[in-house]
Amino acid sequence: MLQAALLRAATLVSLIGSNPHRAFSVLARPVVWRHHAEAASVAASNQFSLSAVRTFKDVDVLSKRCKDCYFKKMDDRWYTLCKTHGRHKQRQRMPDDRHFWIVTHRTRSPRKNF
Questions:
Q1: What DSSP assignment string belongs to 63-108?
Q2: How far apart are CA 15 and CA 79, in angstroms?
Q3: Residue-level pLDDT at 34
Q4: CB distance 78 to 90 below 8 Å
Q5: pLDDT above 60: residue 47
Q6: pLDDT at res. 26
Q7: Is the pTM of this model over 0.70?
Q8: Could you tell me how far CA 30 lies from the centroid of its own chain?
Q9: Where is this protein found (predicted)?
Q10: Which has the higher per-residue pLDDT, 40 or 57?
Q11: How many Å apart are CA 90 and CA 62, to the nearest integer?
């Protein structure tokens, strides 16, 4: 066992030479490779994390990005849909209803009236 450790140390010294930067890369390289291998195996085992989701982009002004894009109105909102490129999907941005509330009384005061 001691001979094996001395043999490994001798091979490291021969690989290191006089350049300390190379020495660090020689020692750190297997750890990095092992890390990438573990990450790949974890990603391969969990297929749900790799599935891409094409959602709508909320925009103020809808536009057709290609010849196959078309407009459709659903649920009081305009949509741009595309059969060839899923990334072209857009949706009309709806204003927040709270901006249109009419406040009929004062809701904040420094003194409590009770």
A1: ---STTEEEEEETTEEEEEESS-GGG-EEEPPPPGGGG----S---
A2: 62
A3: 56
A4: no
A5: no
A6: 53
A7: no
A8: 27
A9: Mitochondrion
A10: 57
A11: 7
